[in-house]
Amino acid sequence: MNSELAIRNSPPSALTTLRIAPSKGWVSLKLHELWEYRELLYFLVWRDIKVRYKQTALGATWAIIQPFFTMVVFSLFFGHLGKIPSDGIPYPLFSFAALVPWTFFANGLGQSSNSLVGNANLITKIYFPRLIVPLASVFSGIVDFLLAFVVLLGMMLYYGMAPTLNVFWLPLFVLLALVTSLGVGLWFSALNVEYRDVRYVVPFITQFWLFATPIAYPSSLLSQPWRTIYGLNPMVGVVEGFRWALLGTNTAPGPIIAVSSAAALVILVTGAFYFRRMEKTFADIV
Amino acid sequence: MSEIAIKIEGLGKRYKIGTLKRHDTLRDQLAYLVGKRFSRNGNGNHALSRGLPASQAMPDSASDTLWALKDVSFEVKRGEVVGLIGRNGAGKSTLLKILSRITDPTEGYADISGRIGSLLEVGTGFHPELTGRENIYLNGSILGMKRAEITSRFDEIVAFAEVEKFIDTPVKHYSSGMYVRLAFAVAAHMETEILLVDEVLAVGDAAFQKKCLGKMGEVARDGRTVLFVSHDMPSVGSLCSRVIVFEAGRPVMLPNANAAISYYLSMNSAERTSATWDVEHAPGDETMRITRVEVSGLDTAQTESLWLAKPIRLAMDFTILKAGMRINPVFAVKNSLGVLVFSTANYEESSWGTRHYERGHFRTVCEIPAHILNEGKYVVDATLVQETRFVRVHIDNAVGFTVVDEGTTRGDYLGEWRGLVRPRCEWHTVQANEGEMPRDT
User: Fold this and answer.
1) How far apart (Å, rounded) are the C-alpha atoms in residues B351 and B356?
2) Which residues are CB-contacts of A225 (< 8 A; sequence separation ≥ 6)?
3) In 3-state terms, what secondary structure has residue B78?
4) Between B123 and A262, where is the model more confident?
5) Does residue B253 contact residue B359 with C-beta atoms inside 8 Å?
6) Which residues, other chains included, contact A126 with Cβ-Cβ below 8 Å and sequence gap of 6+?
7) Spatial CB neighbours of A41, under 8 Å, sequence gap ≥ 6
8) pLDDT tens track for B219-248
9) What are phi and psi of A204, to 5 degrees?
10) 3-class DSSP state for residue B82?
11) pLDDT at residue B148 greater than cutoff 50
């Protein structure tokens, strides 16, 4: 209502003039425009959440089933049969505390990689900052994450494990997982527009990445300085951070987390610029 | 304070045909690159899958590119309603896509002052699992409306779409009519200074189309600037104060909306009764050019089709740039099957038939007598011949016309009149009583 009045009453001189011209090479991220379109981001996230489990028999339970059964399998094979150490934590809890952020990351990556292609009808018909699309698919995974997180809290209760004060750092690690997921998702979603190979590459990479991250095993198996270098995989920082914040593992993950955060930021920033560079051709080739 | 809402300067959009072909996988891309390297003739099999028919597009002979839009420059004043018409692939929709920032131009620029809204396709972003209410918010925000704006117009949108009873039902249960009504309603209630509209009126039943048209008229009267792409000439004619015709990626400027619409219609029936060029771009060379060819009836009122019982006039304007040559204009008339029915030149015209021309502009008129051509469609080639031997300028299918049998020269016969030509021959019949008759049995 207010906006309408504002538009009607503003003199033409107040209208901003927009120049549409060819853009070349690397372009700015236009974060202010992203902010202007925050309501669209909100609605897309809301749509994804609302629609995600429509017409499924188990509904949102799927958000729990996925990490939970992976945990059961890991506990059986790696924990029980493989006798893999778990930093003094019961193995099921040890692996589940890692699987919860991992699932958030992996789903976010999968969704965002396919987001541009999946929303091709929007992209070829309407203008809006394209960054919104992968952003929305990563954000919409937060609900699934929260559901799984509640189960994680339940398991901690079951094993009689109280979180330490470090738990206040937890949002930082969630953010780190989100940044990593978004960063890689930006690269893949932009590549996917031109090369549909990405669709086949992503599940493969995710699987590979799962074992390259200390989910089934502790990173303390590595000695320094390799352990810190391991942090170049940002998910190492996320997983170690989660265990440290929730389960109080005495693994001093500080340096790992610093390295991981830096690596995640590099992926995010390069991904965002690459995405913006490719953006102008999306509508033509998607 | 600017009176110009949209200023477009030298805008062009080039598509790589390679991109249009879509290399979906890296393997395709590699195969394409390798193939391009090893085949000299890369132009063989361009599947123009993006809706740009090859006949319309201008293939860049140098490489695998094609200009969907080229040298587009015009201005739209605030409050103007401008219609964009043209055949499919002529560049209208590409222009709207550039103006609505969906795709980047290749060259030139457009300055847009004011908020721009686009109705390129109704129902974009509708999700079948969401209810009507939810989709109004979702679609509205996709179109660039603020939540408060949607809320304030919500009742109006619902009432316009006539879906009050089903507003909380998922749209997948809607009939297709309800679906497009709701989609159009959301888009039509956007409040932007500039509105780009592409073919959206072709939705719903006749009653709803009428309503949509009414809404568009309201938008136009509101003083908003509208660019309106359509193939529906009556609605273009009634809504638009100015009409621009697109032909093969370039805009054709005509003095008024009616001229533009009739130009488009004649272009569309593959039959234009006149063709005009400015001297620089006219067919010809540095010595002479043909600047206009026109076909008409003697009676100027009948332009669309010509009567076979009336003479037909062919006119040619030409410009002689180099003095001293003997020139003769020639017309060749072909029927719809491409059969040359006849050709004619002014060799017998007194003084002009053998004239050596000075520099200047000339107009020659040739009258085809009545009762020569049969019913049907014809095209005319226009030619300038030098010294009776050398073809200096030749325009294939310069103009076209239709000959209609008005029914005055066929007695009471109503069937098809066969034949390439239709001369009105003299008939004389008598009764001859000499000679023997066979016996009547």
Assistant:
1) 10
2) none
3) coil
4) A262
5) no
6) B100, B102, B118, B120, B124, B125, B142, B143, B144
7) A34, A132, A135, A136, A139
8) 777 888 889 888 776 678 778 888 999 888
9) -65, -50
10) strand
11) yes
Instruction: Residue A215: count other Cβ atoms within 10 Å of its Cβ.
Output: 24
pLDDT of residue B205: 67
Between A and B, how many residue pairs show a Cβ–Cβ distance under 8 A? 137
Q: Is B102 on the interface with A (CB under 8 A)?
A: yes
Which residues, in sequence order, are bridge partners of residue B292? B276, B317
Distance from CA of A71 to the nearest CA of B (A): 33
Distance between CA atoms of residues A118 and A112, nearest Å: 9
Mutation target to probe the A interface, by most A beta carbons within 10 A, among B6, B26, B109, B222 is: B26
Residue written as tokens 């050596």?
B356
B156 inside 8 A of chain A by CB: no
**pTM (2 d.p.):** 0.68
Question: Which two three-digit tokens encode residue B136?
Answer: 């109004």
Q: How far apart are CA B90 and CA B88, in angstroms?
A: 6
Give the model confidence (pLDDT) of A176-225 as tens digits.
Answer: 999 999 999 999 999 998 888 888 999 999 999 999 999 988 887 877 78
Nearest to A126 by CA among B123, B224, B211: B123
Q: What is the pLDDT of residue B31?
A: 65
In this predicted structure, what is the pLDDT of residue B304?
59
> Which residues are registered as beta bridge partners of B81?
B226
Q: Tell me the C-alpha distance between B146 and B142, whole Å.
A: 10
Average model confidence (pLDDT) for chain B? Answer: 80
* ipTM given for this complex: 0.80
Q: Which helix (H) or strand (E) holds A154?
A: helix A142-158
